[in-house]
Design goal:
The complex is a heterotetramer of chains A (340), B (321), C (314) and D (493).
Chain A (H helix, E strand, L loop, with lengths): L19 E6 L5 H19 L5 E6 L4 H13 L4 E5 L7 H9 L3 E5 L9 E4 L2 H16 L4 E7 L5 H15 L4 E8 L4 H11 L8 E3 L5 H10 L6 E2 L5 H14 L5 E3 L4 H13 L7 E3 L3 E3 L4 H7 L12 H12 L12
Parallel strand pairs in A: 1-2, 1-3, 3-4, 4-5, 5-11, 6-7, 6-8, 8-9
Antiparallel strand pairs in A: 10-12
Chain C lengths: L13 H17 L4 H27 L9 H16 L6 H25 L4 H18 L10 H7 L2 E2 L2 E2 H19 L1 H11 L1 H6 L4 H27 L10 H11 L12 H20 L3 H18 L7
Antiparallel strand pairs in C: 1-2
Helix pairs in contact in C: 1-12, 2-7, 2-10, 2-11, 2-12, 3-4, 3-5, 3-10, 4-5, 4-10, 6-10, 7-8, 8-10, 11-12, 12-13
Chain D lengths: L21 E10 L2 E11 L4 E6 L5 H8 L7 E6 L2 E2 L5 H6 L2 E4 L11 H8 L8 H16 L16 H12 L9 E5 L7 H16 L3 E5 L3 H7 L2 E6 L2 E7 L5 H7 L22 E3 L9 E3 L4 E6 L5 H13 L5 E4 L3 H4 L7 H6 L7 E2 L2 E2 L1 H14 L16 H14 L4 E5 L7 H16 L3 E5 L11 E6 L2 E7 L5 H8 L6
Parallel strand pairs in D: 3-8, 3-9, 6-7, 7-8, 13-18, 13-19, 14-17, 17-18
Antiparallel strand pairs in D: 1-2, 1-4, 4-5, 9-10, 11-12, 15-16, 19-20
Classes of the chains: A alpha/beta (340), B mainly alpha (321), C mainly alpha (314), D alpha/beta (493).
The complex binds adenosine-5'-triphosphate (2 copies) and magnesium ion (2 copies).
Amino acid sequence: AGTSARADEGVAKGDTSGKKIAFSNSYAGNSFRQVMIKSFEKIAAEAQKDGEIAGSTVVSSNNSVTEQAAQIQNLVLQGYDAITVLAGSDTALNGAIKDACEAGVVVVAFASGVTEPCAYVVDYNLDSYAKAELDFIAGKLGDKPANILEIRGMAGDGFDKRLHEGVEKAMADHPNYKSVGEVYGQWTATVAQKEVSGILPSLPDVDAVLTQGGDGYGAAQAFKAAGRDLPIIVMGNRQDELELWKQQHEASGYETFSLGATPSVSQVAFWVAQQILAGKDVPKFVEVPLLQIHQDDLDAWLETVPEGGVVNADYSQELVAKIIDANAGKTPLPAIPAPN
Amino acid sequence: MADIAAPRPSRSLAVPLRRWTGVGLPALALLIMLAVIFWIRPAAMSYFGFTLLFKLAIPLVFAALAQMLVVMLGDIDLANGAFVGLITCVSAVYLADQPLVAVAIYVLLIACYGGVGLLIHMRQLPSIVVTLGLSFIWLGLAVMILPAPGGHAPAWLTAFTGWRPPLLPLPLWLAAAAALAAHFVVSRSAIGAVLRGAGANPRAVERSGWSVLAIRVSVYAASGFLGVLAGLLLTGLTTSGDANIAPAYTLLGVGAVILGGGAFTGGIVSPVGTVIGAMTLALAGSLLSFLEVPPTWQIGSQGFILFLVLAGRVLLGDKPS
Amino acid sequence: MTTRRLALPAPWTYGFIFALAMWIATTAYAGFGSAGATLSSAIVFGAFSVVVGTGQMFVIASGPGNIDLSIPSVLTLSAYVSMTAMGGRDDLVLVGLLAALAVGAAAGLLNFLAITLLKLPPIIATLAWSLVFQSFAFNFGGEATLKPPLLLSQFAVWRVAGIQVMPLAVIVVTLAAAVALRRSVWGRQLLAVGQSEPAAIFAGIPVRRVRLAAYILCGTMAGLAAFLLAGFTGGAALNMGDAYLLESIAVVVLGGTSIAGGQANAVGIWGAALFFNLMATMLNTFGIEVGVRLFLTGVLIILIVAAVPRGRTT
Amino acid sequence: MTKVLEPARPPSQARDAAHPLVRMRGVGKSYGPVRALEAVDFELAPDEVVGLVGHNGAGKSTLMNILAGVVQRTDGDFLLADSPVVRWSAADAHRRGIRCVFQELSLCANLSPAENTRIVHRNLRGLGWRKRAGALITASLDAIFPGHGIDPHQVVASLSIAERQMVEIARAYTQTGEPIRCVILDEPTSALGHAATEQLLAHIRRSASNGIASILITHRLNEIIAICDRAVVMVDGKIVATRPTQGLSRSALVELTGHIEAPRDRQTKKRVAAGQPLVDHRTGLTQDKPVLASAGEIVGFAGLDGHGQRERLRDVYRSMKRGHTPVAYVAGDRGTEGVFGLWSIADNLTVRSLKTLRRGGLISDEASRALASTWAKKLQVKAPSIDTPILSLSGGNQQKVLFARALASDADVVFLDDPMRGVDVGTKQEVYRMIRSEAEKGRCFVWYTTELEELTNCDRIYVFREGRAVVELEGEAIETGRILEASFGGGNG
Ligand SMILES: Nc1ncnc2c1ncn2[C@@H]1O[C@H](COP(=O)(O)OP(=O)(O)OP(=O)(O)O)[C@@H](O)[C@H]1O
Ligand SMILES: Nc1ncnc2c1ncn2[C@@H]1O[C@H](COP(=O)(O)OP(=O)(O)OP(=O)(O)O)[C@@H](O)[C@H]1O
Ligand SMILES: [Mg+2]
Ligand SMILES: [Mg+2]
């Protein structure tokens, strides 16, 4: 692919000091989203102080897609130049997003698979999410037969479906692995714990648990309560998960792997929007790297996470510009470095 | 005859007041919110602005009217939002390419709603639990039809929802039409009197020779029909289907009915009030984005707006419902 | 002329009967070895539904239209306040419990005030408050899960002779509620108020105080559930209460309490809670596709309400 | 009081006895083990006015509900205009010109009188139906209750009970298609004031001469004697006597119902030396007397209907409910303000006394049952047991339970809110006696009634006009003439 130096590589310096960027969030009812909002507010405030933008706002709808669509329309009316959107639905906002594009507003949808073609999408590659999970498991268990329990998110949701499809593809590479159960944990520890506890008595030995984030700790609690040994539970970068992992590792050498989105993906979206306004040529799809934590980095990451919080890392304008360039140039994404 | 014609001074005032609070109060709230929005952003006061502000209120208007019919019978429908979601899925999957299949499914679903009315009546079941169970059924069907958001709305539907009619923006035309039609059927027509009577005192209506069973079945079916309209409009606006698109409609619809002067005791509903109530509630969410309330207080402010609007009824000395 | 009628079981037993059926179906499918563990998991998670359900029952019994939709957010808020109050310290566990109960009681009071002073229908008043309570929780450190002290976590899973203590404690709560309904002055008055408010006024019952107590108790129960649930699941999280909105209503009504008020059954809530948990377990175990799973959930709920015999009320 | 009605009586031989409008043969009705009706034979001629009397629970309403199609008979035959009736529903009855004013109000409170009229007339529809319905009900109201002052387009919920009753009666006499043949009136006068009652009775007679038969159920036997051609007496689900009313005396009729009419005895008992009055209620309105009542006193509220007696009674009750004197209230509108429909007799009876039934913090079952059976027996509540659901009792018996609730309590002051509505003659006598004996034991009664004769049981009465207690009468001064005079603003008012 094109590895030659591109004209617009690096941070675009167009003047955006008069521009306003908004964040339309579909739901604020869990700590991940709360951190996501805080991350956005933090970076937007800094950018405003540095004269990069003129203003910003955050609006959250209470898990109501129609309300979010209305809010996007209001943001257009309020004269925002760019709207970053964490969409409550992959498709239901298409009408509102299209209206916004037509009104000349830059729309950057992130952490959601918005299908409206006029929007820029900042997202993870969920196939590689699932592949990383299974690759780790295969690294531990080899290719001998193993029982896998999958904890999914919410029925009818786009993210859930795309990640599950990734799991199915990845599972096809490991024919000896058997999916013994599938429960819906609503990305909520309490629900995951309840659902796993319910199904566990009827399951044979479980060797590994696939998760979607926010559900690993609940699953571990369920295994503990049932008096079973902890299988490999792929964690989702929550502090309580990492803490548990660390304790188990110290007690019995337990090893697992953690990956997931960072709440600060809202900052990526923010800088992408800003860079578009600044005149940078941004591809319609910008893949963001997932944050992966391995045994070696565990302690370092754990240091940085507040008690009960989510692993997070700030994205600077330069880093985001690099991510954009890597996407444009189809080169490997810059990894998020472990703290040291 | 002084004993019969004893004066009761309060009464002559109370009734128009009650009627007024049903429609006037949400209307007043709506105007105040609009005033605030226009004050913050004068540019919103335009054909385009009105369209954007009220576009997404229209499916809610129809969903609220569907809820209103059920509340009119003294029941409540907790499946309303899930049903609208199901309709968007059916529409996004079938309506463009196999319109006849889609219509057949709509008819079947409306019949199912009637069947639920039948079941509730025959077995004297609490509607709140039956419709709670029903909401799982609708959601399950929706997920079976469309496992993840997607599909596409037929072009004619998106063209309709994007249409710019003369004089007033489309949302206002639709809201006015819905309010007038429902007002005529429920509040003015001869059959409307029987329906409201059946909600308040089914025994009396039964004793007058009506079948309350037939009434309940048809009102539930009519509610299903309005739900289909809401789902269709929502599909047109969002150009796609999503099983989880509208769970909020259930409680918003109930709120709109109450805001519009309805009561859970059955028989007391106001279609015009409900339509205005739905638009008020839809706008309350928008108002917050204009006011730039801090994110952690946005949800709470919606609660306070609800209190403010409804507290007006107390100030006007309205009776509790 | 004696009309013989088939002796049907009482309405509140249907939850237990259906729960039993689900249990048998699950264990038959998964092997009988799993029977004990399946049941005990259902009992543990059922206990949380029972606690919130018992509170909801008092409110629903207090008259037509009375319902508390703020339970999930009261639960979340109580958990946050309680975890904050304890700050992870074992010696403050009692303080944490009191804090959770106090937040719940205050929420119940606020709900009731909105209903009486603003003359709002309870469904709207409690919905509006629930939005406000949710905002409170956001501001109370919603960015992290607040951890419970070790002692509380240990209590939540404490077993004596292999039997978990926490559900037993909840069974005691249920029995107390049942006795209160049948044999306490307040319980009788609550059922009277629930049947007819004007009749209760003229029977000399302090209607407002009785109903106020119902709302406060409901909030307090949500606080108690918050305390136990946080201990059991590892802390206070923003979305911990969400699952209990509809479930709290469903277990009450399936448990034999009349949604129209005036009639309540505390023991039946256990049957309904077990039914809900075992139904989810059964459908998960069968491994059916999720759409069908949801569909069957709905069908089973409707089936169980429809199966319960009831006289045509005139 | 009913003198106006006498001349309207038509000659009874004009009736065609061979072709009755309604003929019932051996009609019976069972509610499970309860036998509400037993082999009843009943006939009604096309222009006849029949009075149906009997004790509470005798089966009067049941019989009429069968005729009106809302209750299905369990045995017997039924002929309408000589043709046998097999399937019979409310709609059929309506179609054949049989109308019924039910014992409980059957209006939709959320609708206007005009809309309520529309509900019974299927062909009131199309453009302008509202106007036509309003005209129809107004015409009927004007014909029956001239000067009623009811707006046909205002919701029924804002009407007084008497006005609702008027609307319901007038509605039964509206006609759009099929001519009206028969109107059943089940205790229509229990909620009406005096003047309206007289208007109604006159109208019933007028209708009979226009070929509309009527069946009148009432416990006010004078009304039966005044306007009916025939009195039919029911006891325990059977018809025990049918008598032409010509020449029938009130006491003979009472005797037929199985009761004995006690002589109207007014014992002027020695008043307990009035110390501090138990009740002392002042409003501060001009011309309004303070309402005072001492232990052992029976104080009555009189006046024309709707002049604020009930409101004052409630105000006094509310203000005392939270005070130190224990009070009890017997509601006349038992359906909405009296009974707890899901409960048994025992539960209903003891609910006012819960605090005294506690043993060690919890309510004692034993003590409750003892209290309930004692008082149910004292008031002769007609029911299989004290565990019988209250709603399966007849109206009058439900009322007795409400009385028992108040008397069984620790109340020093008992408020009676027109409590004899629908109570049969025999029971009334017993209750009067009981009130007097309770008063002698030191209880105080404040009694609002619409039946003037009842006031003779009082030691002292207040006559109300326009919301004020304007006149106070005591002892021998309490008699109908004086009360009416005071009510209309004569005397010293
Ligand atoms: N004067 C009145 N007019 C209208 N409604 C009233 C009036 N007084 C009371 N109510 C209503 O009747 C209901 C019960 O009133 P009641 O006087 O029995 O209060 P209470 O419950 O005894 O009060 P507390 O608990 O303070 O003793 C309340 O809902 C109140 O709104
Ligand atoms: N739905 C019912 N279920 C059981 N028993 C009933 C029912 N309705 C009436 N009864 C019984 O039938 C009998 C006759 O009742 P009905 O109402 O006909 O009496 P009534 O003569 O009209 O009395 P009242 O003068 O008090 O109105 C009573 O013993 C009553 O308890
Ligand atoms: Mg009767
Ligand atoms: Mg009677």
